[in-house]
UniProtKB/TrEMBL annotation:
InterPro entries: UPF0047_YjbQ-like, YjbQ-like_sf. Pfam families: YjbQ. This is Secondary thiamine-phosphate synthase enzyme. Gene3D superfamilies: YjbQ-like (2.60.120.460). The lineage of its organism: Bacteria, Bacillati, Bacillota, Bacilli, Lactobacillales. It comes from the Bacteria. It comes from Enterococcus raffinosus ATCC 49464.
Length: 172
């Protein structure tokens, strides 16, 4: 049994939900691993992000977003509206705000601006969709069908960031 680890570095956008097609990176990592039969776990360590398996849609709107993703976002915005003020959701509470202020002093990935943490909606969407997918590998290829694609989704619209996505490829 062989185990290989890979980490993808992904740049997300501010002002919109960011969907990044990671299918080619997944295929490349599987090929480079040399594993012919096994599986690949694809995970994100970010609590406002998800990894999803979806059909690639050739049609895009004028902003470059795939139609299926636009439709998904419209439905989600009705179920879990975007947080604009501290009174839209209970999160973040005062204890968490203090924790994040202390964290911002130590870690440059966290901004001291409290408005940047008005992202309860992103946390809820991340929880609904989950942080991982698992793909079976057969004959050195992921079994995702002819229209299946893997997407990394950053639900947090408050700022652009560089995110990570972890791959663990196991098999023979």
């Amino acid at each position: 049994m062989t185990v290989k680890h890979e980490q993808l570095s992904l740049d997300t956008q501010a002002g919109k939900v960011t969907y990044l097609d990671i299918t080619l990176q997944l295929r490349k990592a599987i090929k480079q691993s040399g594993i012919k039969d096994g599986f690949c776990a694809i995970t994100t360590p970010h609590t406002t992000c998800s990894v999803i398996f979806e059909e690639y849609v050739h049609d895009k709107d004028w902003k470059g977003d795939e139609f299926l993703q636009v439709d998904q976002n419209r439905i989600l915005d009705k179920l879990v509206p975007r947080q604009y003020t501290e009174s839209d959701y209970l999160y973040p509470g005062p204890a968490h705000v203090e924790f994040l202020k202390d964290l911002a002093a130590k870690d440059p990935n966290y901004l001291p601006d409290p408005v940047s943490i008005l992202n309860a909606d992103a946390h809820i969407k991340g929880s609904l969709f989950g942080a991982s997918e698992t793909v079976i590998i057969k004959d050195g290829e992921p079994l995702i069908g002819s229209v299946g694609y893997m997407y990394f989704v950053d639900w947090d619209q408050n700022r652009e960031r560089t995110r990570t996505c972890n791959l663990m490829i196991m098999g023979e």
